[in-house]
Amino acid sequence: MRRAKKPKIINQLLVEDYAAEGKSLARIDGKVIFIEGALPGDRVDVRIHKSKKDWAEGSVIHFHEYAPHRIAARCAHMGVCGGCQWQELPYDWQLRYKQQQVEQTLKRIGKIELPTLDPIVGSQSIFQYRNKIEYTFSNKRFLLPSELSNPDISATTNVAGFHARGFFDKVVDITTCHLQAEPTNQIRLFIKSYALERQLSFYDYRLHTGFLRNLQIRICETGQIMVNLIVGENNPALILPLMEALQKEFPSITTLLYTVNLKWNDSIFDLEPIAFTGQGFIEEELFNTRYQKKFRFKIGPRSFFQTNTRQAEKLYQLTEEAAGLTGQETLYDLYCGTGSIGIFMSPGAKKIIGVEQVAAAIDDARENAQLNNLNNTSFFAGDVIDICTSDFFATQGQADVVVTDPPRAGMHPKLIEKLIEINAPTVVYVSCNPATQARDLQLLDTHYQVTKVQPVDMFPHTHHIECVVLLTLK
What we know:
Blueprint: E1 9-14, E2 17-18, E3 24-28, E4 31-36, E5 43-51, E6 55-65, H1 91-110, E7 132-138, E8 159-163, E9 171-173, H2 184-197, E10 212-219, E11 225-231, H3 236-249, E12 255-260, E13 274-277, E14 282-288, E15 293-299, H4 309-323, E16 330-334, H5 340-345, E17 351-356, H6 359-371, E18 377-381, H7 384-387, H8 390-396, E19 401-404, H9 413-422, E20 426-431, H10 434-444, E21 448-456, E22 466-473
Parallel strand pairs: 4-6, 11-12, 16-17, 16-19, 17-18, 19-20
Antiparallel strand pairs: 1-5, 2-3, 3-4, 5-6, 7-8, 7-10, 8-9, 10-11, 12-13, 14-15, 20-22, 21-22
Helix pairs in contact: 1-10
């Protein structure tokens, strides 16, 4: 038998800088070490998990010194639940590193000429900023290293919270999450207590059995609240009394739903949520300061909507400013989702044409256009590379402005070819992934010049970052 290699430990390593994806880095003998669980300025011992010629990856096993700027995390679960990795980093430092991440990624991967980046736009609220959150129920509790040897703490315990980082079947039992306003924690803890008292089963992610599975909560700036309880058994005798108890305990819930999910995955996009109370949807508002106009959006349990409402207003405002609309433009909103960007920008354009692969999202976009009494919008369902043909652009009109907001994977190469072909004077690229955005910008560089780069922080305490890039035809 091959003898297992002894893990390599590097002692007294000074963490020098932030890398990307929440990792920090240090250097030793010219080799870059990417480190999980440390901040720049920490002095640590690191266990190496992977080692190549020029780089290695590892995680902290001991702190000798903490970075002088490190602060106490507000959340007791920080670093365990897989959510907020940066609560121990002051917010101004978080913004500094996110700005650095965008600049370095665009330069390293894009390898194109860039203007000076505009200063990152920080979030007005750094806690309780999420309008949507999803909790998980499980019969497997994630144990901290300090709990592993405690016989009074069992891993086979019913819990309600978030998946532990790196584990699909173990959940961190959350007492208080600070990312969403109350009654989010009160609702989760009430359901957990109700289930424990009545011995209702919690979901087992290995066996795919159990009653309580997930809980989705949306809390809007309008004050409306939507709660969707996802269960793993179609048992009305268990579901309906729980719904009645929730309705009685939390009369502020605007619409209360439940969804029966008998699949092995947690996605509910192909399932039909059932409204127990309310209309089955809620409404959120976005305010366009340029036109002093408020837009209202219908949000169902399967709808996509930007998770940070107030910051979404800033993101869309910056997108509109980059587009330079005068009221005469035909604007194509690609990967439009439920139409929020196009609808927000509709006062400044002659015509808005949205394209989105998810048919249900297009249904929402059309409803949202009607809700706001718009007559200059059209929305089309289908893959952008199938919809956006030469005939499509010829029928709908020459593109003056293209706004594209693709998923993390970025734009399809065929769409990039089509954008170059249609020769729109202005392209505004909104991205949640600087790496794939940089890759796409390199392909567009043959015909377009990047004239503005604007990072926007939508998710404080995480490494995630949005970026608005303005491209002008060369």
